[in-house]
Amino acid sequence: MAKEEKAAEGAAEAPPKKSKKMLIIILAAVLVIVLAGGGAAFFLLKKSDDHAEDGEVAAEKESAKKKKGEKEAVPVYIPMEPFTVNLVPETGDQYLQVTINVEAEDAAVGEKMKIHMPKLRNKIMLILSSKKPSEIAPREGKEQLANEIKESINEVIGGGEPAKGKKTVEDPVKEVLFTSFIIQ
User: Theoretical Cys-Cys bridge with 175: which of 7, 9, 101, 103, CB 3.0 to 4.6 Å?
Assistant: First the structure.
């Protein structure tokens, strides 16, 4: 009987040795996986930080150039009332409804635009109503339309006199932006 008890105790002791070894192996494997994941996360985050720093460095260089050359101007956006026009027919009657914002170099341009608004709206209406839907549907058509409108506005409100130290007159309107563009 004593032999059976010792054999039972020996059998009971043997599995814990195996389970301890297995536990150590599992813990080591989990530790390796956690360290590998942590290392990968560190390198990925470090790379994105490096890119952010590159962007910050580029922004600092750009702001330094602006400080040296001229003051950074805050853009002025002048909203216009929506336009609804008939387009040149291709497949029946089609309409264009568009809302335009104008980016100007300063607020004085907005005042000039208010003074000349009836003339500006007329010119823009003529430009818009002379287009076919197929011309203005693609991106390139919209960009070309925006440039035509910009040139028309600059023609009406004029550039004035050249700034000090500059030989040419800069256009008062920098860009025409479509905030809504619907063709029906």
Answer: 103
